[in-house]
Design goal:
By secondary structure, the chain is of the alpha/beta class. About 40% of the residues lie in helices and about 15% in strands. α14 links the parallel β9 (about 310-315) and β10. The longest helix has 18 residues, at about 1-20. The chain is globular, with a radius of gyration of 21 Å.
Amino acid sequence: MKKIFSMLALVATMALTACSPKTETTDGVNNFRIKRGTNVSHWLSQSEARGDARRLHIQEDDFERLAQLGFDFVRIPIDEQQFWDEEGNKLPEAWDLLTKALDQARKHNLRAIVDLHIIRSHYFNAVNEGGEDTNTLFTSEKSQQDLINLWQQLSEVLHEYSNDWVAYEFMNEPVADDHEQWNRLIAKVHKALREIEPQRTLVIGSNRWQGYETMKYLRVPEGDKNIILSFHYYNPMLLTHYGAWWTPIGQYKGKVNYPGILVSKEDYEAQTPEVKKLLEQDGYLTQVWDINKIREDFKDAIAVAKKYDLQLFCGEWGVYEPVDRELAYRWTRDMLTVFDEFGIAWTTWCYDADFGFWDQQRHTYKDRPLVELLMEGKALGE
């Protein structure tokens, strides 16, 4: 009988720990500590799947698998259109899937970042897809208040999750013409969230697609230690997005070299005038791309994190699936080395979509060497 009561007490304690948002250290800083994770993408974001196709896509065994591999957290992108209709009414199925995912992640000791990825007033890739006129977030007070309203509603549902286990990323890849537009919005959303969740860990990224090069312009709310600073890194895009249809540089079909100068003179001369013009940008013809270039690119982001004494997090990085695998592995190995050198947390883009390592339909690894590399050579079970 004593054993039964002890087990019941243990279960009750675990349940309270999972749900309590008040857990904190003596200095008021959460225990939301992260190292390596992946994006559970193209599920509650950037997907038209609904009903069974969406419900069955990500399930508990996915979180169990990620934990067994050695990941300690996940980033879960969500889109406004999946959670609210155009009149602002909640769409229950997506909310149910998100809360179940957070419960399953916690069950398997995975922390989670809920990332508001795309909203109706802002889409990060609008410049390449002809929808710039729909990006009203930085020019409309109403759109900014709408963003705050979305987070107030998310908080109503998510605030019971422990501050040690769930964090909020209130905006993905902002694209403001002026850095101060983004800084002013950060201050506004931060103030609104702190009024309802004083201690929740907030992930804040830099302007212009969360670029490493714009971190130095970021103004972070002072005195708040429950903030993680985020940047994304896919450089060189010619390598990581080789053949990608959604970005102009994907038009190049010649050979890519890494490490070194990416495109030889001979390969450059063989291209059309349009592609040559693309190659003449971003140092593809002159810059030596290698681990030292990655270190140099990260310097500003590292300096900003040090200035504010906050954790630094690379929320997206990875290589498009069709890219030559040996090139992909070389670049990935260099990225991991630099992350380790400077204590930068990371989530790969992504788990099972077109940058990922897991094949959901076949229920097996589609890129076993990649996940072994990510997990530092750990032997994987079948």
